[in-house]
Amino acid sequence: MADETTPETQQKKDEKPRSTRRVVIAALVALCVFAVFWPVFSALQPAYYERYPALRSRMVNWRGSTHSVWSCAACHVGPGLENQASFALKSIPAFYEQIVAGPNETNLLGLPTNQACQQCHTAYRTVSPGGDLRIPHRAHVLVLKLKCVMCHQRLVHYRNVEGYNRPKMTFCLASCHNGKKATDKCAKCHTQKQVPPNHKHRGWLATHGRRTAEINCGTCHGWAPRLCQACHVKRPTTHRGNWKKLHRVRARERGKGCLFCHGGKPFCLKCHDKSIFNRLKQG
After folding, report:
1. 5 belongs to a structural domain
2. DSSP string over 237-282
3. Which of 9, 25, 126, 184 could join 179 in a cystine, given CB atoms 3.0 to 4.6 angstroms apart?
4. Residue 117 gets which letter from DSSP?
5. Amino acid 87: pLDDT
6. Where are the alpha helices (DSSP H) in 81-201?
């Protein structure tokens, strides 16, 4: 029987395998794209982290913060193709690993970079919103090269004991403003710090030690546990040089003399007998 295959028929036969291969290749490409895209997309969703009890509270705090209008990627991945590629390389294997080996509570999102913060916070603020605190951000970021997250810790995903997210002064003092690495003078940062009226009374420096029974110094000074040492480890100007020979003369210069600072009789009796103490008291 003669072969009745025409050129047109042969062309149709040849096109069928090619068409099938195209469909298979397209399906494989789509599957690969999905296999890459879906893990990355999933790892950027809040629900991905809310599945795990250890991370759930962080997401609850985020939803109640001012940053809840921004996606996870906006802060934690950062701008630029390099940052996005780096996150993809971490999230893809982690996604499939938790499918095979079970849930993994590892946080794939790193700390926000300065570049991520500056996508919105473009101005270098110099004072706090209330105007009572100097905050030279430009000096901290551009000159000292500090990272935003160094000071702004627990800003979104945590709440401190006071119930707000701004940095605590104790952190500033402990990390930098300790009087050595950076200034610890109140007036350098606090623009409206006023001296309490009782601190202006005559003889306050001499009597403040005895006032601790009625005044809780820690209410204001608790941030500086070594506040007393700033003065008490230094010898007074009247106690320098040959003060041991001259102190009885100087004791009469300020009314109650040594008792002005040193309190009562027991202090003097550590070195003097009662007769010396009486003469000193009489002036």
Report:
1. no
2. GGGSSSHHHHHHHHTTTTSSTTHHHH-SHHHHHTTS-HHHHHHHHH
3. 184
4. H
5. 83
6. 81-101, 114-117, 137-138, 148-151, 169-175, 186-189
CB 108 within 8 A of CB 87: yes
Count of domains observed in the chain: 4
> What angle do the packed helices 81-101 and 7-43 form, to 10 degrees?
90
The CB-based long-range contact list for 2-10 (8 Å cut-off, 24+ gap) reads: none
Q: Examine residue 34 and state whether it is found in any structural domain, yes or no.
A: yes
Q: Which of these three, 112, 133, 158, is where a domain ends?
A: 112
Per-residue pLDDT tens digits for 244-266 = 777 777 766 655 666 666 766 66
Domain membership flag for residue 3:
no
Domain, as residue range, for 137: 123-193
240 and 217 housed in the same domain: no
- What is the pLDDT averaged over residues 149-164? 77
> Residue 108: helix, strand or coil by DSSP?
coil
- The CA distance from 218 to 225, in Å, is 9
Weakest mean pLDDT among 19-28, 63-72, 89-98, 112-121: 19-28
Instruction: Write the pLDDT tens digit of every residue in 169-220.
Output: 888 888 888 888 898 888 888 877 777 888 888 778 777 877 877 888 877 7
Domain boundary residue, one of 185, 214, 229: 229
Contacts of 121 (CB under 8 A, 6+ apart): 148
- Given this model, what pLDDT does residue 54 score? 79
For residue 182 the two structure tokens come to 């950076």
